[in-house]
Write a structure and sequence with these properties.
The relative contact order is 0.09. Helix 10 links the parallel strand 10 and strand 11. Helix 5 packs across helix 11 and helix 5 packs across helix 12. Strands 7-8-6-9-10-11-12-13-14 form a 9-stranded mixed β-sheet, sandwiched between helices. The chain has a 6-stranded mixed β-sheet with strand order 15-16-20-17-18-19, with helices on both faces. The chain is an alpha/beta fold. The protein is built from 17 helices and 20 strands.
Length: 454
């Protein structure tokens, strides 16, 4: 049996295997699935003396115990094999925890939340990098954390986007600065209850020296100073809405910092090219992290002005005959899709569907009624979504099944309804038709180019 067993052959698992191999461990990587791509990667890793077993779930007996098991984020933390491993005393950690153990002498910004993580992480990293710091973004965005740990040049800061899966499997991870962007029901198929999901996220913030919260989030703001007495809070609504005495807020078109009794302006909100109130919330949290890390106002202002936005999150693809085509493939739940639709001009043609998640769809449906001239439904969720739209009295939907049908039909519908926007904002995971939301967004991009720009 190897000294270290890595479960899950994604980017994180491979990075963890390479890091441990580099440190002299004997490593085996296993994954229950197999495919031509995985077989190709298996051969590559074999040349690095890393054993990969595909289509394989390891069995444990007391005689062949590994010293360490490292779990990729996509592998549920409570599957029987991991429960058994913990029961017989094998140390079991996530890939993020492994990276932390190699980089805990470097300050981290740890960013979590249901929605808003990716933009906040990307913008925070951009600000730190503009200030001349070696501050890679990693975790759910950019590099796997264990890739960063292998870099020859040591980072000044680590900017980590941390999902509940990554926090759940991290034992000692303790960032210098922790950010909590939003909190709404998500991943309940995995975490079972809202309380479990909350407690996992809260663990990261409890472990952080400095805490930053989105004070405009309904759930987090209710907890307020009672639960988080030393936190910095943010609000897009102005100083009077700030929770507590210190924080960051927007007033008269400026991001304001209130750490001392006299507030000071940091950057104009209009410097950020991204639309929507939620992006102003993301801006506040990124600026807060930068200021609390000691970054000067000039670097912040420059970074915000130059920040291009995040792929697949309200990303402008093209303009065809005056109609904007926008890719919001990263909206994989109802809340994110509601925010996406709220951020664009109406009337809009909405493309939605995929693999549905549990959650409250009422606010999303209300936004459709207010802003969508027509809805094109794709993927497994299409019949259920059609039924929900009927129930709320919305009839202008079309079940089109595939992205290709949706894009070709969206252009005709946009002209018919004089819509200014075609928005892909699925409110669903992608796994029924695509390996991930990025591939779904890329398909949308390519189809827009095929149908509209040729």
């Amino acid at each position: 049996m190897p000294e270290a067993l890595i479960i899950g052959f994604g980017k994180s698992g491979v990075a963890a295997a390479r890091l441990l191999k580099q440190e002299g461990w004997e490593v085996e990587l296993c994954d229950s699935s197999t495919s031509p791509t995985l077989l190709e990667q298996q051969q590559k890793l074999a040349s690095e003396q890393i054993t990969v077993k595909l289509g394989n779930t390891p069995e444990f007996t007391n005689s062949d115990i590994s010293k360490l098991i490292v779990v990729s984020p996509g592998v549920p933390w409570d599957i029987p094999i991991l429960a058994k491993a913990r029961e017989i005393g094998i140390e079991t950690i996530g890939e993020m925890e492994l990276a932390w153990r190699f980089m805990q002498d470097i300050p981290w910004v740890g960013i979590t939340g249901t929605n808003g993580k990716t933009t906040t992480t990307a913008l925070t990293a951009a600000i730190f990098q503009t200030a001349g710091l070696n501050a890679p973004a990693c975790g759910n965005i950019g590099y796997a954390a264990c890739e960063v740990a292998q870099a020859t040049k040591k980072p000044d800061w680590i900017i980590g986007e941390l999902s509940s899966y990554q926090i759940e499997s991290s034992v000692t991870l303790a960032p210098r600065i922790g950010i909590w962007t939003t909190f709404t029901p998500d991943h309940l198929a995995r975490h079972k209850t809202l309380e479990n999901y909350y407690n996992i996220k809260a663990k990261l913030l409890h472990n952080s020296q400095i805490q930053i919260f989105n004070g405009d989030d309904a759930y987090l703001s209710k907890l307020g100073l009672n639960h988080w007495p030393n936190a910095y809070w943010t609000s897009v609504k102005g100083q009077e809405f700030l929770i507590g005495e210190k924080g960051f807020y927007i007033e008269n078109g400026w991001v304001m910092e209130k750490i001392t009794p006299t507030p000071q302006p940091i950057v104009e909100v209009s410097a950020l090219r991204m639309v929507g109130e939620h992006n102003q919330q993301n801006l506040l949290m990124s600026v807060a992290a930068a200021r609390l890390a000691g970054i000067d106002i000039t670097a912040i202002s420059q970074a915000v002005r130059e920040f291009p936005g995040v792929p697949h999150r309200l990303e402008h693809i093209c303009n065809w005959q005056g109609i904007d085509f926008i890719n919001d493939s990263k909206a994989t739940n109802y809340d994110a899709a509601e925010v996406g639709l709220a951020s664009v001009q109406s009337p809009a043609i909405l493309i939605a569907g995929g693999e549905a998640k549990a959650g409250d769809d009422n606010a999303w449906l209300a936004q459709i009624q207010a802003k969508a001239a027509a809805v094109l439904l794709i993927g497994n969720a299409a019949p259920a979504f059609a039924k929900r739209l009927q129930e709320v009295g919305y009839s202008n939907y079309h079940i089109v099944e595939t992205m290709e049908n949706a894009v070709s039909m969206s252009a005709e519908l946009a002209k018919k309804h004089q819509a200014s926007v075609v928005l892909l904002s699925p409110a669903c995971a992608s796994f029924d038709q695509y390996p991930n939301f990025e591939m779904r967004g890329e398909d949308f991009r390519q189809l827009c180019q095929k149908y509209l720009l040729t």
